[in-house]
Amino acid sequence: MEEQKGATEAESLLEDLGFDKLPIKVSQFIDAVSDGSFPITMEFHAFSSDQFLGKAIGNSEGAGIIINSNIPDSRRLNFTAAHEAGHVCMHVMTGTSQNFSCGNKELGDYFRDPLERQANGFAAGLLMPKRLVKKLTDGDVNWQNIKHISDKCDTSLEAVFRRLSWLEKAPVAMVIHQNKQFKRFVPTSHFDFYIQQTNLTSEQLEACTNVSQESYPSDFDTVDPIDWVTPERKGLRLTELYVSSIMLNDGFIYTLLSYDDDCLEEIED
Asked: CA 267, CA 212: separation in Å to the nearest integer?
């Protein structure tokens, strides 16, 4: 798995360099990796278009990172910087490639490009190293734990979800809506059911927790799976589904889907 290769590389470097406290500052990491034989610089410039996120360029003598300071979300900007650091450490320094430009087009090609997946894994391992993150929660993939890690590591909710769900090997997925309209979903390798790409119903909207007014929830509602997924696959039927939705700014609604063995039954031939 390319993401895990990247995460392992980042965690190994952090341990070698003596980073043992959160949050991990990307600029401090770059300073620690950089030396006279291979200097690395990181600069922030305001680009008018958010289509461009970041860039990593270099050769055998050194490397430079450029980040679009106009990325509106500071935590997304932080992850972008860590992603470009991954390109430098894993690809430029090793001679694999000398030039990476990351934007919306590259995100669209993400699953077809193993180097982008390695850099994303590196960013996750750099900002959320397993040995430090595992101490922060009880291991459950719920909004309360995700929010806690997000605050401690200065990373987005989605990035934390991806990292925590992998660390816990949990059958979970995230569905993202905006103004009730389906936008996309974030699957994980342990979630075995197809997600319905449908808009939110009034009942689903009412079940959301508005986290600008209430605390991030740790609990889930038990619902009929058919409202969220195709409930039959690989000889199994999902009889119940655990759901937890939060309402964020700009009309965004993030929903966690989860199940356990008690929710499954075998389909008889």
From this structure: 42
CA proximity to 255, closest of 141, 137, 152: 141
pTM of the entire structure? Answer: 0.92
Which is it for the CA torsion 113, 115, 118, 123, positive or negative? negative
Q: Which amino acid is at 66?
A: I
C-alpha to C-alpha distance for 177 and 184, rounded to whole angstroms: 7
Q: Which residues pair with 186 in a beta bridge?
A: 174
Provide the β-strand partners of residue 41. 64
User: What is the rounded distance in angstroms from the CA atom of residue 52 to the CA atom of residue 66?
Assistant: 10
CB 248 within 8 A of CB 260: no
Residue 36 contacts residue 45 (beta carbons within 8 Å): no
Cα separations in angstroms, 132 against 19, 71, 200:
10, 27, 36
Give the whole-angstrom CA distance, residue 181 versus residue 43. 37
Cα–Cα distance measured from residue 128 to residue 7, given in angstroms and rounded to the nearest whole number: 9
- Distance, in Å, from the CA atom of 173 to the CA atom of 167, rounded to the nearest integer, reads 14
Phi/psi at 213 (5° precision):
-120, -25
Alpha carbon 241 to its chain centroid, in Å, reads 23
* CA separation for the pair 91, 161 (Å, rounded): 26
End-to-end CA distance of the chain: 34
pLDDT along the chain (269 residues), means of 10: 94 96 97 96 86 90 95 91 96 90 65 87 97 92 97 96 93 96 92 95 96 96 96 93 96 97 89
For residue 120, give every residue at least 6 positions away whose Cβ sits within 8 Å of its Cβ, in sequence order, or none: 3, 6, 83, 86, 110
